[in-house]
Design a protein that fits this description.
It is a single chain. The protein is mainly α. The protein contains six helices and five strands; from the N terminus they run ααβααββααββ. A three-stranded antiparallel beta sheet has the order 1-3-2. Strands 4-5 form a two-stranded antiparallel ribbon. Helix 2 crosses helix 5 and helix 3 packs across helix 4.
């Protein structure tokens, strides 16, 4: 049993190291493109959705960012002429985020080539490698579309997929 526990811990450690390495790759890429990490991911998700505009709240939920982080990034990106925010007709409180021409050019120059590289990398790892995110998602339940967000105890996230007895809290 102890040997099995060590193997499990080694696998979890490897997954965590790979996630950290991926985070670092994207962070450095964003920095080399003169973008903040949050600005990069906002542009990324706008491109990913293409025709459908996000609200600030949706970006927070999608990328696990705080409203303050997204608001600050959106303010800077609006001042740089990359984005415009438009209020919705039926809900003046929500604003949808749209790319300006400069924003579209930035996405074409920075985000699209990265997405192309991601597709090539995914093709190179083959079918077995493509199942890794789904398997990780099943194990931890922390990928987009799962239970997430802040709880009522002061900004912690509950890791979904754990039993009621062993639910752990993560700092927000």
């Amino acid at each position: 049993m102890e040997d099995e526990s060590r193997k499990s811990f080694a696998q979890i450690t490897l997954y965590n190291q790979l996630i950290k390495e991926m985070d670092d790759l994207y962070r450095v890429y964003a920095k080399n493109c003169n973008l903040s990490e949050s600005a990069f991911w906002i542009l990324y998700c706008i491109q990913e959705r293409e025709k459908e505009a996000f609200t600030q709240r949706e970006i927070c939920d999608y990328w696990f960012y705080t409203p303050q982080t997204v608001n600050s990034a959106l303010k800077n990106m609006t001042e740089e002429g990359l984005l415009i925010l438009r209020t919705e007709k039926d809900n003046r409180k929500n604003k949808r985020i749209y790319l300006t021409e400069k924003g579209k050019e930035t996405v074409e120059r920075i985000v699209v080539p990265l997405m192309d590289a991601e597709r090539r990398a995914l093709a190179a790892i083959g079918e077995a490698g493509r199942n890794i995110p789904e398997n990780y998602e099943k194990a931890y339940g922390i990928f987009p579309g799962r239970n997430r967000g802040t709880d009522k105890t002061g900004g912690s996230r509950v890791i979904a997929g754990t039993s009621e007895d062993d639910t752990k809290m993560m700092p927000a």
